[in-house]
Amino acid sequence: MRADGDVWDIVTGVGLTALGVATFRAIESAHTEPLIHDDYAELFVRAAGEGHFIDMLTNPPKLDDIPLVPGFMGLRTKFFDDFFLSAASDGARQAVILAAGLDARAHRLDWPAGTVVFEIDRPEILEFKDRVLRDNAAVPRADRRTVAVDLRDDWPAALTAAGMDPAAPTAWSAEGLLPYLPGAAQDALFGSIDGLSAPGSHLAVESAPTGAASSCFATLESKYFDKNPFGAIDPTDLFYRDARSDPEQWLPAHGWPVRVASSTDLAAAYGVTLPDLPDELEQEWDRPRYLAATRMSD
Ligand code: SAM
Predict the structure, then answer these.
(1) What is the pTM of this model?
(2) What is the best residue among 121, 126, 187 to mutate for testing ligand 1's pocket, by most ligand atoms within 8 Å of CB?
(3) pLDDT in tens, 183-227
(4) Domains detected in the chain
(5) Residues with a CB atom less than 6 Å from ligand 1
(6) Do the Cβ atoms of 159 and 118 come closer than 8 Å?
């Protein structure tokens, strides 16, 4: 399903996954007791005009009346929100959001004065995002700089050209990204992050130990939910399935001690009660690993 140099916009291919997760954030934000607040997510979903996701805003996919998928996105979003705020309080004044998609952290989070937030994604995604933000007169809460580049290409050159300073501590995130990269590009990504990170830099990653060999998302979802959360696409069809290093092993071996949490760990930490799930759904729910690592001195 994937090919070297393939492209997408916000309503096709990999772009639809960005729209999907924005939809889940919008639904979670509208919950009576939301774990996160993302007022921009719904603006993006409505502006993209994709019927399935607009319909989901009012009719989310449910399991026994529980909006499980938006709940999962709430945990994930809060993990990365807390990570960035903690890195900022530790002194990081630049953040790099890899594969930013419709992530609105530059507009949502309370960044310390002087923080620069770099958002990397493909040009078509960032153009759509900028248009919606402009149309809504959205004002970022940091010095937001977009870096339109493919993460399979020479993104470090584009990032440093945009003003990222490798000598200063950085907070990096790779959320909802790794399986969409070929193995070689993922391995190069971690090597480049390491090379561009001053001691005291921080990195948060969503990973999955079984990598791309996960079960077919659409089959599982259609078995348990009244509708497929991603509509016509199955995100797992867009995964690269080649071999790559496991960041949970690679990071500590390269001077980045790592803390690891599962979705269940996050739910416990955030006081979220999980429903009783069928085994195969529970396995899928608990497959992602949330890594937080800090670059030690050389
Ligand atoms: N991190 C965002 C979030 O959690 O809301 C977006 C996640 S979305 C599932 C995947 C994102 O990865 C999309 O925005 C897509 O454009 C981006 N992406 C995937 N492969 C990419 C590549 N080779 N170069 C640049 N961006 C890429």
Answers:
(1) 0.96
(2) 121
(3) 999 999 999 999 999 999 999 999 986 544 455 566 677 777 777
(4) 13-294 (3.40.50.150)
(5) 14-15, 17-18, 21, 99-103, 121-122, 125, 150-152, 175-177, 180-181
(6) yes
